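Write out a record, fold above all:
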Amino acid sequence: MGKYSTSAEWADIVPIPQNDGGPNPLAAIAYTEEYSEAMSYLRAVMADNEKSERALELTEHIISMNPAHYTVWLYRANTLFDLQKQNQSNLEEDILEELKWLDDISLKHLKNYQI
């Protein structure tokens, strides 16, 4: 059992697993269970076009495991802006908080070109 599958907060989401091309893929990537689970939930969130605080938390978790995942960065940025448009957050505060978080990430991953 993983972090998301056992969480009541994520009970309404049906994860979409990675499709590597059938039961015997030619070159499947050996992701960790934690990363595979988080990405399965992100695929489901993205398929529903959910823009929420929990989606931001999910992207943060995935970025902590794979800071070079461009799609996750883009979805995170779009979620931040959409939340502001929905009046669910204060853009200036969110951007300052995001920049602080980005500063920490960028110092840990100096060759991350997605930032």
Observations:
- The CA atoms of residues 96 and 102 lie 10 Å apart.
- The two ends are 32 Å apart (CA to CA).
